[in-house]
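Got a spare moment? Tell me how you read both lines of this record:
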Amino acid sequence: MSTDLRSIAAIPLLGLALTAPLAALDDSLPARAPTLRTAPAGSVVPDAYHAALTRMAGTWDVRIATWENAGANPVRGEAEADITLTLGERFLEETLSGRLHGIDFQAHGLIGYNDVTHRVEMVWVDNRSNAMNRLTGSVTLPGDEFRLKGSGVVAGARRAVDLHQDIRIISADEFAVTLYSHRDGKDVKIMERVYSRK
């Protein structure tokens, strides 16, 4: 490996430990670079909580329903989603594309399990707003249900709102994501996405 590549490998990326493919470089890297041998125990190898999330990996048909107001009839749409493991199987990356409200609907999501805080963390962006929605939550194995809470901007809103999102694993070939906005002291369902494996 060239000197330039060793220098790049030594840069701490967002404070994360270097991943397994770089372990072989351990003796040639500067001592300050984190490696599999020097990283804190349990912070490098994905564990059972990560494995619980990987059940959502795959290619999916997605049925979408949105509600503008509580009690209103839902607006329905369809999409396709590719959800792939990335960065050493630590995270799931979702790319979703379809039609909603008669227009193209595109979204990207990243979800993972933080083994330091013991929280599931998610970032979601779509072409219905200019905001990054950030949510965190807890999970209990086997991880059939996740409840995430956070804030973001939903379609039509011009301010940040409190959100919570439930993810429910129905079977090996189906899961559902339901998004709620906190309004007037209660949670109001604003979107539901049901994923069926292709």
The chain is about 5% helix and 50% strand.
